[in-house]
Amino acid sequence: MIDIGTLNYQWSQSLIGGLAAAGVRHAVISPGSRSTPLALAALREPGLQCHMVIDERCAAFFALGIAKASNHPALVIATSGSAPANWLPAVIEASESGVPIILLSADRPPELHGCGANQTIEQRQLFAGHLRGYHEVGVPYPDFESNALLALAARAAEQARWPDSGPVHLNQAFREPLLPEIETIRPNIPALNIGRPMLMPVPGDIAALRAAISGRPGTIVCGALPYQPELAEAIAQLAEQLQCPVLAEPLSNLRFGAHDRHRMVVRYEDWLGDDAFVDAHPGEWMLRLGATPVTRKLQAFTARPRAVTAWIDPRPIWRDPAHVLTHLLRADPLAACRGLLDAAPCACPAEWFEVFAKAEAYAATQRAANASPLSALIAALQPGTALFVGNSLVIRQLDAQSGTDAKALQIYGNRGASGIDGNVSTALGIAAESGAVVAIVGDLTLQHDLGGLALAQGRNAVIVAVNNRGGGIFEYLPQRTLPEFERGWKTPQDIDFSHAAATFGLAYHHTRTPETLATTVAHAQMAGGPHLVELEMA
Fold this sequence. Notes:
Layout: H1 4-21, E1 26-29, H2 36-43, E2 49-52, H3 56-70, E3 74-78, H4 88-97, E4 101-107, E5 133-136, H5 146-161, E6 167-173, H6 203-213, E7 218-222, H7 229-242, E8 246-248, E9 264-265, H8 275-280, E10 285-289, H9 296-302, E11 308-312, E12 327-329, H10 333-343, H11 352-368, H12 373-380, E13 386-389, H13 393-401, E14 410-412, H14 423-434, E15 436-442, H15 443-448, E16 460-467, H16 485-490, H17 497-504, E17 507-511, H18 514-527, E18 530-536
Parallel strand pairs: 1-2, 1-3, 3-4, 4-6, 5-6, 7-8, 7-10, 8-9, 10-11, 11-12, 13-14, 13-15, 15-16, 16-18, 17-18
Helix pairs in contact: 1-2, 1-5, 3-4, 3-14, 6-10, 7-10, 12-18
């Protein structure tokens, strides 16, 4: 009769090995007792790169960053009790932004539930409403069939990626003892190739959209999209075919790269607030790709009723907050753009694009006369940099100030739920997969995830903290008129970030001007290792 500890370990070897065989390459582990069989199996699994992260909230966001950069499910392991509850903010972000992560929580066996046992809570409903799949794995039992666990692991890996990428939760109960009494041989688990289909557009839908937009004035608006040079090229070619502007925000990954960018309009924040201009040039159609835009001005522009508002979106979710949608193509964006190109719709009227080009040129001239820290930062980045942009004011400033360039950049953000929690940890997860990252976040965002700085050790990471003395985003909202504004919303903090850098082993730099910021970041990227750069705003 096999001992319970060895049974737990053999069971975990099959479950963890199955996940690795199904394409999981990273495991983020927070230390704990009840999760010992899972952690031990992961640490000894040659197909996994394991990362030990003490704080479970940081761990989940770190896994989120890995999954963003790799487009493969990342595994998170934690012990029972309140530990997995700390995953919730990252689970919400993963669900809303469609990022594949697999949550593997250890649990107490059934006989310890509902009787006051220590570190025992109801874990089955922790993430209700935010999951692509949930599996109560059950307590290990003798003579179990390894193939059943392998199949479960494969199913979880597929659910995390298709048909709508997102989080999957496996809840695994163990009885004690938790350590194996005998050394067991890792089972030989063959790799399992789980294909992911490309959702092709229906020819009739392409024909209907072509007929609706052909020869009429309109715009393409692109929110957050994955970094995919082929997609950027296809969108640029479609814009050239239609001779229309593309309003592309930074997270669209269209502003930077070798593709044709002359129809990319990136300074729209400077003229979308001009009601006379917008009223005179609404266009008859709008083609949407990617997530909902970041800024209120662009959101308002997309919310205007038009004869045609079309959205190309492969995710099975409804994205039409303004209730103006007339055409919905459930298709891969690259396939849909190529389908429209093959359909050869007629171009917009000749003078249509020129109106936007003139507005763009004027805004570019005005911006050139007033150098900004973010535009200087963008100019200093090395080609191919993975850039993470924090939420709140920073992403909006980057939207207005980044410009466009032939230098390729991969730009990431947590815009699913748009929270400031876990931004640093997410950026460092991107570094774990990509090899390096530059992140720019606000001072409150950094404070909210100070523990994430521990993940920077040994990584090529440059974290820029824009210190504008509190929640600068609220300066643009109605709350600024309240007498309690400073105390209740802006909430300026008195933090010495140099001490935070020293605590977590990052080189610290302090800057005040666009020029010194650009120089500092450039030198930090060249030097390698972890750096914290504080940009103090007046």
